[in-house]
Amino acid sequence: MATYGIARDGGAINDVSGQVVLITGGGGGVGRILAQNFARLRTRVVIWDINKDALRGTADELEAEGFFCHTYLVDISDREQVYEVAKKVKQEVGNVDILINNAGIVACRTLWDLSDKAIESTYAVNILSHYWTTRAFLPEMMNSNKGHIVTVGSVAGLLGTYGCTDYSATKFACVGFHEALFTELRVS
User: Fold this and answer.
1) Residue 188's closest CA among 5, 2, 30, 6?
2) pTM score of the predicted model
3) Which terminus of the chain is more solvent-facing, meaning fewer CB atoms within 10 Å of its CB: N or C?
4) What DSSP character marks residue 120?
C-alpha cells in the first residue's frame, strides 16, 4: 500500500488537531486504523462506509478510547449520494480539511472469471469515487488555500498482479489520478 499526500503549498502536514478528516472505507482495515490514528491526533474524524455494522464497530472502538467520530452510511460508487452526503457533512461537521480516499474492493479473480458487474463495481469504488469525493470537497480547500487529499493505493498500482486485472488497473488509475491532480493544483 502506498499513501501519497497533496499539500497545496508544498508544505508538510503539521498540527492537525481540530481539523476535519474524512476517511472513506473507515469501517474496517486500513480505514479503521487511520480513523484511530487521526482521533489520537485530536482531529474531528468523519468516516464513510457502505457497511453499517463496520461503521458502528469503528465508532465503538474510538468511543472506548475516549474519542468521538461522525459516521455516515454512504455508497461511494453512487455519485449523487456522495454529493448529497458531502453537503450534509459540511453542514453538520464543517468543511473537510483532510480527505482520505481509502475505500476499495477486490474480487481476486482472473479476467475470464470476473463478471462484468464485478469489473464495473471495482472501477466505481476504487477510482471513480475519487473523482466524486474530490470534486465534493476540493473547492472549499482551494477557497481557504489549505487542505490535503490523500490517496490510498496499493503495490498493485505499480505492477500487475495475477487474479487482479480489475483491481490492479484501478490502483494504477489511482496513482495517475493523484499525480495528475497534483500537477493541476500546483498550477492553479
Assistant:
1) 6
2) 0.91
3) C
4) H
Cell numbers for 55? 461503521
Measured N-to-C along each axis, helices 129-144 and 165-187 cross at an angle, to the nearest 10 degrees, of 20
How many angstroms separate the Cα of 139 from the Cα of each of 69, 151, 182? 24, 17, 15
Give the whole-angstrom CA distance, residue 40 versus residue 56.
Answer: 18
| Model confidence pLDDT, tens digit, residues 150-160 | 999 888 888 88
Strand boundaries in the chain, DSSP class E? 3-7, 20-24, 44-49, 69-73, 98-101, 148-152
Catalytic residues: 167
pLDDT tens column, 85-120: 999 999 999 999 999 999 999 998 999 999 999 999
The average pLDDT across 14-42 equals: 96
